[in-house]
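User: Run a structure prediction on this.
Assistant: Running it now.
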Amino acid sequence: DEVAFKEQTLLRQIDVNLSTQRVSAIENGVVVDSWSVSSGTSGYSTHTGSYSVGWKTSSQNMGNRDLEKAPYYFQPDVKWVMYFNGDQALHGVYWHSNWGTPMSHGCVGMPEWRAQWLYNWTPQGVGVNVHY
């Protein structure tokens, strides 16, 4: 017997709630997973708005090796990086575990295993909504 072809629309979005310090993965309007993150701290806020994932890389160094020059930090081997607003990205964090508290220079950091799951779940171009 021949099985009829079935087409399904798949709409994925990432929601970043700065008030609750949570990110949610949304598929066809349903939250499929949600967890605590750390966004930008005072003076380095994560910008609100509607964006899309523009560039992804599984690992990179962030900051500047010369700590006397901006951005005045250096973090080697940052995993599962997805840029959504200029130099602001969703990525894994191995240097702290203070989730739910703003701690970054504008990025949205999360445990590496969560960042890996989100990286694999997210194709380039997925919408990212950042709000309070």
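The chain has a mean pLDDT of 95.
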